[in-house]
From TrEMBL:
<feature type="signal peptide">
    <location>
        <begin position="1"/>
        <end position="22"/>
    </location>
</feature>
<dbReference type="GO" id="GO:0045211">
    <property type="term" value="C:postsynaptic membrane"/>
</dbReference>
<feature type="domain" description="Neurotransmitter-gated ion-channel ligand-binding">
    <location>
        <begin position="44"/>
        <end position="250"/>
    </location>
</feature>
<keyword id="KW-0472">Membrane</keyword>
<protein>
    <submittedName>
        <fullName>DgyrCDS8757</fullName>
    </submittedName>
</protein>
<comment type="similarity">
    <text>Belongs to the ligand-gated ion channel (TC 1.A.9) family.</text>
</comment>
<keyword id="KW-1133">Transmembrane helix</keyword>
<keyword id="KW-0732">Signal</keyword>
<keyword id="KW-0407">Ion channel</keyword>
<dbReference type="InterPro" id="IPR006202">
    <property type="entry name" value="Neur_chan_lig-bd"/>
</dbReference>
<dbReference type="InterPro" id="IPR018000">
    <property type="entry name" value="Neurotransmitter_ion_chnl_CS"/>
</dbReference>
<dbReference type="Pfam" id="PF02931">
    <property type="entry name" value="Neur_chan_LBD"/>
</dbReference>
<dbReference type="Pfam" id="PF02932">
    <property type="entry name" value="Neur_chan_memb"/>
</dbReference>
<keyword id="KW-1003">Cell membrane</keyword>
<dbReference type="GO" id="GO:0004888">
    <property type="term" value="F:transmembrane signaling receptor activity"/>
</dbReference>
<dbReference type="InterPro" id="IPR036734">
    <property type="entry name" value="Neur_chan_lig-bd_sf"/>
</dbReference>
<dbReference type="InterPro" id="IPR002394">
    <property type="entry name" value="Nicotinic_acetylcholine_rcpt"/>
</dbReference>
Length: 466
């Protein structure tokens, strides 16, 4: 009896335990169903239906003979950098590529009125864009930029970032230069029969462009072309050329390079106004020559290492370096004439050329008058000759006294003659120094006039372009 009661109680306990377990399992199933309903949403079902059996390698056309047309444009955000040494232009912005994917079409009414999706570019077909003249990597990593797909099959992809590409620079007119650079966008895998580009805008999008401190964008151009290469026979490849025309803002270079050079060039004229006795004429010229060399080194650091083009600013600095070197030579000649001394009298042709021709021409008439007075004194001195008969009539003592007086007078005359020769050399040096001053003033103003004319033409061209 007791055994039967124990068996019944144990069976009852087992039944109760199974009931509790079944209740827990039922709750878990209901929870899992609720979770599955949340996870498997309409959008999930749509994505699964679209990407099932979708191969991203196959072009999105049911008819394989049809060409995929990709509309492309570029929006410029900023000019990042232009490396003149390496001849590389880096810009930031984004490409916009749009095409029709026939494998990604659906009826929005069947999927909860969902009209667009955002898909991973690794899972669907993309035109595999490449920068043909890239300075970094030809194929950029664009997997972080997802693709927006509409129910009609229209796909829009907007990869962005920094695009660095090579650019052949024309540095002839640096820093008054305009540069023209082109970014070549192409598809590396398809020829023109498989894929074609279509330009949606013939210029860059500048809605979000940020102004650059050194460069100004004055024109952009977009053109499309089927390029044929020699090593691919009877095949053409689609390419889009994004060209940007930029102009350098030269205010910085004018303030910190050109203006100091202009000021130094006028300080150079002071070497011809300094007195020769000061001993600083040559030192000043050499100091200015060193300053021009420093400015030339600054310019050389910015200009590409090439012999194809010499910038106008380098020619300008080299010109003034040559002028400064010539001024040092001219100052040396003036010092040589100034300290010629009384050993040798100036030649008559030199006196005639300096005092009769140069001095009146250079408005140095005081030197001409001084030379005329000296000639008159020389003529008066030459006409005074003492008579020997008078000395013979005088006593011996008076003759001796006269001879002593004449010797003293002769030494004084010799000293005065030497001083007169020294003064003649100094006056000649002063006239020639003034001649050099006028000559170098003309040589300095001449390139400045050319610079002003060039700046006027530069601004006129700028206004015409705008």
């Amino acid at each position: 009896m007791r055994t039967s009661v124990a068996l019944l109680s144990s069976l009852l306990i087992l039944v109760l335990f199974e009931g509790v377990c079944s209740m827990k399992k039922g709750r878990k199933k209901t929870k899992n169903r609720e979770k599955s309903k949340v996870h498997f949403s309409t959008e999930y079902d749509l994505v699964q239906d679209l990407l099932t059996n979708y191969d991203p390698i196959v072009r999105p056309r049911y008819n394989s003979s049809e060409t995929v047309v990709v509309r492309i444009r570029f929006s410029l955000q900023q000019i990042y950098d232009l490396d003149e040494k390496r001849q590389i232009l880096a810009i930031s912005g984004w490409l916009t590529a749009e095409w029709l994917d026939e494998f990604l079409m659906w009826d929005p009414e069947e999927y909860g009125n969902i009209s667009s999706l955002v898909l991973d570019p690794r899972h669907i077909w993309t035109p595999s864009l490449a920068i043909g003249n890239s300075a970094d990597r030809m194929f950029q990593t664009y997997r972080h930029f997802w693709i927006t797909v509409r129910s009609t099959g229209e796909a829009r992809w907007q990869p962005g970032g920094t695009f660095a590409f090579t650019c052949a620079l024309d540095m002839n007119y640096y820093p008054f230069d305009n540069q023209y650079c082109t970014m070549e966008v192409e598809t590396w895998h398809y020829n023109s029969e498989k894929l074609q580009f279509n330009i949606s805008k013939h210029e860059f999008g500048l809605e979000t462009y940020l102004q650059h401190g050194e460069w100004e964008v004055y024109k952009t151009l977009v053109r499309y072309e089927n390029v044929e290469y020699k090593y691919y026979q009877d095949e053409q490849f689609p390419e889009v050329f994004f060209s940007i025309f930029i102009r350098r803002k030269y205010t910085f270079y004018f303030m910190y390079i050109l203006l100091p050079c202009i000021m130094l060039s006028f300080v150079l004229l002071m070497t011809f106004l300094l007195p020769a006795d000061s001993g600083e004429k040559v030192n000043l010229g050499v100091s200015i020559l060193v300053a021009f060399s420093v400015f030339l080194l600054i310019v050389a650091e910015k200009v590409p290492d090439t012999s194809d083009a010499v910038p106008i600013i380098a020619i300008y600095l080299m010109y003034f370096m040559a002028i400064t070197a010539l001024s040092v030579m001219a100052s040396t000649i003036v010092l040589k004439l100034h300290f010629k001394g009384s050993e040798k009298k100036p030649p008559k042709w030199l006196q005639s050329f300096v005092f009769d021709c140069l001095a009146p021409l250079l408005c140095q008439k005081s030197h001409t008058h001084w030379h005329t007075k000296q000639q008159l004194r020389n003529s008066i001195t030459m006409t005074f000759v003492s008579s020997p008969s008078e000395n013979e009539c005088k006593p011996m003592k008076e003759v001796c006294a006269c001879s002593e007086t004449e010797s003293e007078r002769g030494s004084a005359d010799e000293k005065a003659k030497r001083e007169k020769i020294t003064q003649e050399w100094k006056k000649i040096a002063e006239v020639i120094d003034h001649l050099f001053f006028c000559t170098f003033l003309f040589l300095i103003i001449l390139p400045l006039g050319g610079l002003v004319v060039f700046a006027h033409i530069f601004h006129t061209t700028e206004s015409d372009i705008k």
